[in-house]
Amino acid sequence: MKDMLTAPFLKAFSKTTSNMYRLGWDERNGGNLSLLLDEEEIAPYVDLNAVKRRFELGFDAKELHGKYFIVTGTQKYFKNVEGNEETNLGLFRISEDGRKGELLWGYLDGGRPTSELPAHLMSHISRLRVDPENRVVMHTHPTNLVAMTYVHELETRQFTHTLWQMSTECIVVFPDGVEVLPWMLCGTNEIGEATADRMRNARVVVWSMHGIYGAGKTLDEAFGLVETVEKAAAIYMLTANLNKINTIKDEELKVLANYFGVKYRSGIID
């Protein structure tokens, strides 16, 4: 059996959490990250029959039964993940009945997955229905995006339109736009269900006055998606109180989308 700490997927996962902390997105134990893995990826590193313990998921995830996830732990700090992965992360399989996680590696100190696990798994279910290649769900607290939810209308069309206008690359990177939820209590199935419902329409869901959920095919893609949204929000916050004399016009957004061959979300600039 190979050393789990040498697994490419674990190294990439750990590096991503470090970058999220470095950018100030994940203060204290804020934020969480989950990655769907193939059995072939993990088989060289863990004994698939050696379940260390089981834990309740808190909802019926039968649609994911038999699938493997690596997920950040509850009350764990992203700044501590790199170099201490086995304590701060866990690799588990969804049980046959969809009600439990079967821990195969990690959570060494007796820990558990993030309290936002239902929101992650519900979002995975939703995104896999849209695109079977989506494997990453990232929840984080980008400063400028959170600030933007205090001063901008919390409406999906308007919020998306504003972000698209902030940078030339935005309509290309997230042509499906962003979905916006009002403030809701975190760590509940209710916010998980609301997030998953919105994930059917877009890979980004904004939790007002809290943070963002982003989904992607790879860790890099999901990270870059959130990074682009946050950069657009930063530009908005820098210019919100200034007299703007220039902007990217709707017709120019259409030219951009056409040139890069992306199908943008209808109802935003149409």
Sequence-ordered SSE layout with sheet pairings:
Blueprint (H helix, E strand, L loop, with lengths): L7 H15 L9 E6 L1 H4 L10 E4 L11 E5 L12 H4 E6 L5 E7 L10 H14 L5 E5 L2 H9 L4 H11 L3 H4 L5 E3 L7 H10 L5 E4 L3 E6 L2 H21 L10 H11 L10
Parallel strand pairs: 7-8
Antiparallel strand pairs: 1-3, 1-6, 2-5, 3-4, 4-5, 6-9, 8-9
Helix pairs in contact: 4-8, 5-9, 6-9
Structure explained in plain terms:
With 270 residues, the protein is α+β, with helices and mostly antiparallel strands. It has 2 domains: 1-114, Class II aldolase/adducin N-terminal domain (L-fuculose-1-phosphate Aldolase); 116-270, Class II aldolase/adducin N-terminal domain (L-fuculose-1-phosphate Aldolase). It contains 10 helices and 9 strands. The mean pLDDT is 97.
What structural keywords apply?
270 residues, alpha+beta, L-fuculose-1-phosphate Aldolase, 2 domains, 9-stranded mixed β-sheet, 38% helix, elongated
Name the CATH architecture of the largest domain. Answer: 3-Layer(aba) Sandwich
Distinct helical segment count: 10
Mean pLDDT: 97
Q: Tell me the number of strands.
A: 9
Query: N- to C-terminal separation?
Result: 56 Å
Described by the principal axes of the CA atoms, the overall outline is elongated
Sketch the topology as an H/E string, one letter per element.
HEHEEHEEHEHHHEHEEHH
| CATH H-tier superfamily of the largest domain | Class II aldolase/adducin N-terminal domain
Strand order of the largest sheet: 2-5-4-3-1-6-9-8-7
The fraction of residues in strands falls at: 15-25%
| Domain module tally | 2
| Low-confidence region ranges | none
Instruction: Using the coordinates above, name the CATH class of the largest domain.
Output: Alpha Beta
Query: Based on helices, strands and strand pairing, what is the structural class?
Result: alpha+beta
Radius of gyration, in Å, reads: 19 Å
Sheet having the most strands: 9 strands, mixed
